[in-house]
Amino acid sequence: MKLKALSLVVAAFTTFKGFVPASAILIPGASTPLFFLVATGPVSEGDLFLPLRLTGWSNQATLTGHNVVGQFYMINNSLVAEDPVNGLSSPYVYRPYVDLSTKIGRDANGAYDASQNDPNDDCSATSGPLIFIQENRPDGIITAPPKCAKFNPFSLLPNPEDPQFGAKLVYNGNSTDFYSCGKGRNIYWKANPSDEPVDCNVPVQLFTIPVV
User: Fold this and answer.
1) CB of 117 within 8 A of CB of 147?
2) Which candidate, 174, 180, 187, places its Cα nearest to that of 132?
3) Is the pLDDT of residue 18 over 50?
4) pTM of the model
């Protein structure tokens, strides 16, 4: 499986700025074709070439599990993920944010639950989980983001040093700030390696692969 994934990455990694495959999927109004985000990190941690999934058992963006693999694009300078149920024709996209609550809300099973966040939190954390939210749903339900949700600009940074690799996902102007945590390989953003969770110290970078 790893060899198959490696072959796919070597064949498909590319920068959107300089090259768009003829078979890439284009979205009207978007500034990039549709793409996956795939992790590069220490081989010993098993994160290499794992795709980013919108959610896992913990309700956070993750590199493992059986939930849907995200398909993303940039539009109006914003990163969005397509609605995995209704496809590209759906206007009900997912938007990413980092929850900067000083104490992240969890349910009884330890999964992310923003409803458990402290309403008086000052949102001063310098790290937090990467979350994708579908604020407007096809059934008419509106989901409000939590108080400390920070939709700071996510952008794509071209990689001129090695054109074999795709563009790198950047949050808040920092290109090396994502971490893969725990057995579930949940994705966190950290301003500093020593930030919470302190036992999460495996840096990963997320690169684009075009959906063809």
Assistant:
1) yes
2) 187
3) no
4) 0.84
